[in-house]
Amino acid sequence: LSADAPADNVPNVVGSYALNALDPTGEQYGGTLTITNGDQPNDYKFQWLISGGIQEGSGTLEGNQLTFTWNSLAGTDQVISGTGVYTVTVNGELHGTRTIDGVETPGQETAYPNPK
Predict the structure, then answer these.
(1) CB 58 within 8 A of CB 43
(2) What was the pLDDT predicted at 24?
(3) Hey, which residues does 70 pair with through a beta bridge?
């Protein structure tokens, strides 16, 4: 990962990402994260395509911190929800934690921008 982006000079986070992660139990998983613009400036919509299903969320960028809430879509393997926070790096990578409601330990996620 590159260095964390300065709060006043954060790369655009809209795009598609390759996701590498560890869930709260230490189980590895991967997938794709897509971030699109939300309804207001600095608001974003998220979609995770990971083993077991699709999860969606929304969040806000403040400085280099992207905070969000998320939930699994109906019909997926598990009905779960939670919160998370990613730090944006100077090269547009995302790294941080994602929690599952009712689980004490957060998972760790790193997302790498896919080439445009």
Answers:
(1) yes
(2) 83
(3) 57, 82
Q: What is the pLDDT of residues 52-82, one digit of tens each?
A: 789 999 999 999 999 999 999 876 667 889 9
Are the C-beta atoms of 21 and 30 separated by less than 8 Å? yes
Please name every residue paired with 36 in a beta bridge, in sequence order, or none if there are none: 45
**Rounded CA gap, 31 and 102, in Å?**
23
**pTM to 2 decimals?**
0.92
Token pair recorded at residue 40: 């207001």
Residue from 106, 9, 107 nearest 61 by CA? 9
Tokens of 90: 């100077």
pLDDT of res. 16: 97
- Residue with structure tokens 């330990």? 105
How many C-beta atoms lie closer than 10 Å to residue 41's C-beta?
A: 8
**Distance in angstroms (rounded) separating the CA atoms of residues 96 and 1:** 12
Q: What residue ranges of the chain have pLDDT lower than 50?
A: none
Cβ–Cβ < 8 Å for 30, 20: yes
